[in-house]
Amino acid sequence: MALICYKDGFVLVGSVAGQRFWSYMLNIEGSTVTCGVWTPDDQQVYFGTSSGQIVVMDINGAMVTTVTLQDSVEIVAMAWSCEKFKMDENDTGDEIGDDLLLTRPPAARETPGEKTSVLAVYFQSGEMHFMQTYYDLSPTIVTTGMTACKMEWSNSGDILCVGGLAHSGTTCACSALCFYTETGTLRYSATIPNCHRQVSALTWGHNDKRLFVATGSAVHVAWVSKSISTLQFLSKINISAAVRHESNLQQLPLPPRLRHLVGNLFSTTIKGYIPDPYKLRDFAVQHPPLLERLYCTMIRTGDDFSTSATYTLFLEYLGGLVPLLKGKRTSKIKPEFVIYDPKITNDTAAQPASNSSGSPSDTEPSSPDEDLCASPRMQHKRRNLRRRRRLRPWAVQGSPPKPAAISDSGMWDSDVLPQELHMAEVTSNIWGTRFKVVGVAAYLPNNLGQVNYKTSLLHLQPRQMAIVISELRDDLQPEKDTAFISRNFSDDDDKEEETETMMTTTKKR
Questions:
Q1: Which of 120, 292, 445, 449 could join 437 in a cystine, given CB atoms 3.0 to 4.6 angstroms apart?
Q2: pTM of the model
Q3: Which helix (H) or strand (E) holds 507?
């Protein structure tokens, strides 16, 4: 079930599908609801307040009790040490090296019987209580010494990670992580290198072998080993620290198996390839490193529907979109497009935008009455023009922006892609069932690919699509085929396709 609690005390419980089960308005005058958590058996729900109280309700929305833990001290977060997901993987072997060396004896890896969950309650003062239930009279109290903390139990429920800002003397606060056991014992602590920002979120992953910590716009990944590391694993860490780069491993006089195990330490958990803004062309026409699969999405850009539609292909990376290619429809009758060369230069990025007429106020109304008297299309066009000028004042003032594809906020702007040189063209027949991708640039072959649709006239058969894509390799230079057929489709191809479709339908009858 889903739990939604508001600061004013309104509580809403429903299903993940959106069905509402019950709601309740808590009577918490002078305080607000700060957090909420279900019990491990899903029979009760706890609410933490800014006055240091825990409000307990049952699964049906009936009030059970209210307990004060610390008077007038805000409860920031609460978490149970119960297992969140049933994992089929066993916690065996070296977590990082995968060298199949058991790190614990078999007796230590046996799963115990029924496990008692522990409730961790974190207060704004930096104290943390480890409790068995809400009425625990003797909880374990731990002083973390950190502020603005986030915490989460591992999936197995035996390690609690607390991340926040650690203050040490007169020096500035630094981001730190502390790991506690179920009894409140500090197991390990570490500081995030070169980071002095507040921890905004943290979570466990990979069967508790990875820890992901977010500070600002950065995501830090920690490799976690809960057991005592082997001598071989410690040796690999020292070797990797001395080598520094994976390319230097081939110079070490080690057996291939040991060299491979050391090389595993250089692998990254979050893999992604953000292209250089000034090397977008190379990124678009070359294979990704190690033949990794990249996920892209296409979005129609531009609000002016009076001109041809413009489409931008974005690379998806960590919830963000990185523009790669921009295309524009060239025909209103047939679905034909042109794909522009994405190569960005300093001159291209610094070139200011200008109006077609040269005057910044040719299409902008001079008074509100003029805007009201205009047609709906003209009103829409003028509103878009004013919005673009607010976002890009340099288009009116004539001062060029910084020659970069990334703004000050760290977000990519799709407008930085140039629309001057053509890289490829997409042609089609009048029916929109056959497409050809033709390379126009000198560094691309003529025939880049073809897409053929086979449809039924009365939709009696499922549609079929055949895609043929030419491979672009770095070791082979593109050759222009002089015998390549014209880019346009002939009328004979359209008539032949129409006849074939009608014959297929007749046979089906």
A1: 449
A2: 0.61
A3: helix 491-508
